[in-house]
Amino acid sequence: MGFDYALVHLKYTIPPAVLLTWLYRPFFTKLDVYKVGYLVFVAVVSTIPWDSYLIRTGIWSYPSHVIIGPKLYDIPLEEVFFFIIQTYNTSLLYLLLSRPTFQPVYLKTERGTAQRQWRYMRLAGQVFFLALIAWGWRCIRRGGLGTYTGLILVWAGPFLLMLWTLAYQFILALPLTNTALPIFLPTLYLWVVDTLALRRGTWVISTGTKYGLNLWDGLEIEEAVFFLATNVLIVFGQLAFDNALAVLYTFPHLFTDPSLLPSPVLLMRALLTPCSKYDDLRIKGLDEAVHRLKRKSRSFYLASATFPGPLRADLLLLYSFCRVADDLVDNASDADEARAWIAKMRNFLNNVYNDKLPQSAVHTQIYDDFPPSTQSAFLQLPATKLSPQPLEDLLHGFEMDLAFQQGPIISTAENLRVYSERVAGTVAQMCIQLIFYWYPSTLAIGEKNAIVAAGNSMGVALQYVNIARDIEVDAQIGRVYLPLNWLFEAGLSYDDVLKKPNQAQIQTLRKHLLNDAFSVYEKAKDSIERLPIEARGPIRVAVESYMEIGRILRNEQYQVKAGRATVPKSRRIVVAWRTLNLPDNYTDETTFLDHLQRNPRLQPYEFWSLMSDATVIVQHLASVIIFCCCFVAIIQNRVSPIAVVGWASICTVLAWLLWDHWMGQEFDIIANVPTSNTEESVPNAPQAYSLRTQQRIATAKSAVLIYAALLGLSPILKSLTRSTTSDSIWALSTWLLMMNVAFFDYTGGTGAQYE
Fold first, then answer.
1. Which CDD domains does the UniProt entry name for this protein (predicted)?
2. pLDDT of residue 582
């Protein structure tokens, strides 16, 4: 018995797991847990038979002085834990590196010439993996030096071949940060760990089954191949999983309303869907949406990476539509052209929400009325998940922008709020509608409406920050969004701002506007915590990333790019990570006392009733502890098994007699309770035995059955476990006890009904 292998985990595998968990914890979703857990399960189940065979045939071994002792099919538990921890670490690294990538845009339809190219690439990969399997089989058949290498290839090759066939598109098309990097980083790290372990003799490879070649001093080439193959398997598995999710959530015509935690069968159906059935227009629309967002709004682009898959896609498409609509109006050559675009967009919305109009007619109008570069934004707008009113209000906001050509339109702070509600509050409302679509809530309609209203206010706050940032840029195009009464109070005119947007009085008004923005923000931000839990963190990131611009504007610490204040990317990432790290019960210390109120759902407990409820838990845990003590004492020959069984039986009988006496008193109390005069007396049916007697007979039957079963099974179990090692019995007993404690019925048992 030793701890060398356990120390390898403590030093080299657990610390990276802790670090990666800490880094990725803010992003963890139920789907991520499902993916990692599923992959860990597959890895353990598929590796145990292979590893057990290698140990039993002596290809590799673990000296008894380096392992703690317990084994599973001759595999040390430390080795089983290695399967789990390696899969976990590599999976988390993959998730961390692939998080910024919106993977559905890398799906390909494979039609025409492209189809032949993709087929050739798929075939080339299949031939490569088949060749590896054939070579591995040849090495095994020959035996000797190549046996270990052959076993690695024959074991890993079929899995790699299957995963390549199912997900070759993603494997080839995704950025290297999603494919190569999560393979080579953990592989290189494990090569170093393996070198140290081999030098210490933590595990040993039989000399007759390896080539004797080293990648570097101390690292056998077979071990290098093994860790490379296992990490490729893990990443390919993650890629196949994500490929299936991309198909499920990207093509509603193929999979309508897929589950947010799809079953393995549904995932396989998605992977087996022919690429020719993919929707080209959908992929194009998503791709253009990602590029628009990345080019136009770095803050929201960063925040979008934190949203779950299907919601992220719809938010991207919504932003793409709003961006295109705004650009059509802003880039018009004159007011008449801008009004024409607004009229066409209003006609588009009327057609979209006209149930009697076929979809083909809507598409025809899009192709006829809008430029080709904008058509995908209109085609892919998730209108069925949105109400029409916010979209109509957005067009009213565009019309307000047009009015600037006739003179100033923002006379008061109220005018500014109305404008901000139309151009930004509406977008926030639609985002919340999409959230509630994908993550239905049990909140009442009134509460949902209150959250939507708070979202509208938050949109106003963000628009105020946007206006404060873009005073100079807006002045260049002849617009001033600062209220006229503010300008007059500061001794400025509308033209003064257009001519000199950088003067000192403007900075004062900028801070005034930012103060209003943060005032609205403080009132609305608590509603974020009432959103579905899956969207709270991402919405916080979206809001805080933008409000950070307001903070640096207030402190005058900003950088200017293209006439606009910007937040450095590193600072935006830190803000996003900190925001996601806020717990679900987070309360801002500065506003906590203002919102403090008595909890209406508080249920006070009495001490003795609480103790009574806890008795069944304490009783069962005490029974388990007594059993463990007796078991250890018997193993160490400190007590006789007959004495333990005898005294336990006597105590059980005495305890049952005491319990029966107590139950008799309970029955007498119930029997003496007078019945109501209004109740009719219903004669009891004649019974051969009283209720108490029936319970006694049932208890006696159960006791006899249990004793008989134990006496009958004991010799059988003894003979069956005679060839089983003691450490396996200890491991099995430990797991059974843990399962007993975890799944025991703590509801109170038979007597609970009399409480």
1. Trans_IPPS_HH
2. 59
- Amino acid letter at 271? L
Using DSSP's 3-state secondary structure scheme, residue 212 falls into coil
Residues whose CB falls within 8 Å of the CB of residue 449, separated by 6 or more in sequence, listed in order? none
Q: Are strands 559-561 and 564-566 parallel, antiparallel or unpaired?
A: antiparallel
Per-residue pLDDT band at 35 (split at 50, 70, 90): very high
Alpha-carbon distance of 1 to 23, in angstroms, equals 35
Task: Please say whether the beta carbons of 430 and 390 come within 8 A.
Answer: yes
Name residue, tokens 């845009």.
105
In tens, the pLDDT along 568-589 reads: 667 777 777 777 765 555 455 5
Each residue's pLDDT tens digit, 94-137: 999 998 899 999 998 877 676 778 888 999 999 999 999 999 99
Would the pLDDT of 401 be above 70? yes
Cα–Cα dist 601/586, whole Å: 19
d(CA 755, CA 746): 15
User: At residue 273, what is the residue type?
Assistant: T
Residue 106 to residues 50, 172, 242, 292, 402, Cα–Cα distance (Å)? 35, 9, 11, 16, 39
Q: How many CB atoms lie within 10 A of CB 259?
A: 9
| Assigned token pair, 678 | 């209004």
Spatial distance between the Cα atoms of 219 and 193, rounded to a whole number of angstroms: 10
Give 103's DSSP letter: G
Is the pLDDT score of 680 beyond 60?
A: no
The full DSSP string for 46-88 is HHHHHHHHHHHTTSEE--TTTS-S-EETTEEHHHHHHHHHHHH
45-91 residue pLDDT tens: 999 999 998 888 888 888 888 888 788 888 888 899 999 999 999 99
**Number of other residues whose CB lies within 10 A of the CB of residue 42:** 16
List the one residue out of 268, 174, 186, 258 whose CA is nearest residue 228: 186
Distance between CA atoms of 464 and 236, rounded to whole angstroms?
Answer: 46
Q: Which of 398, 411, 419, 517 is nearest to 469 (CA)?
A: 517
Q: What tokens does 340 get? A: 């024409």
> Residue 31 and residue 308: Cα distance in Å, rounded?
9
**DSSP notation for 506-542:** HHHHHHHHHHHHHHHHHHHGGGGGGS-HHHHHHHHHH
How many Å apart are CA 543 and CA 303, to the nearest integer? 9
Return d(Cα 137, Cα 644) in angstroms, integer. 56
DSSP, residue by residue, 250-297? H-TTTSSS--SS--HHHHHHHHTS-GGGS-HHHHHHHHHHHHHHHHH-
- How many Å apart are CA 90 and CA 187, to the nearest integer? 9
**Overall size of the chain counted in residues:** 755
Output the DSSP codes for 653-700: HHHHHHHHHHHHHHHHHHHTSPPPTTSPPPPPPP-SS-HHHHHHHHHH
Sketch out the chain's domains with CATH numbers. 3-109+168-278 (no CATH), 281-585 (1.10.600.10), 621-666+685-734 (no CATH)
**Paired tokens of 216:** 């570097």
| Sign of the CA dihedral with 655 first, then 658, 663, and 664 last | positive
Instruction: Give the integer Cα–Cα distance in Å for 286 and 652.
Output: 70
Spatial separation of the C-alpha atoms in residues 184 and 90, rounded to whole Å: 10
pLDDT for residue 156: 93
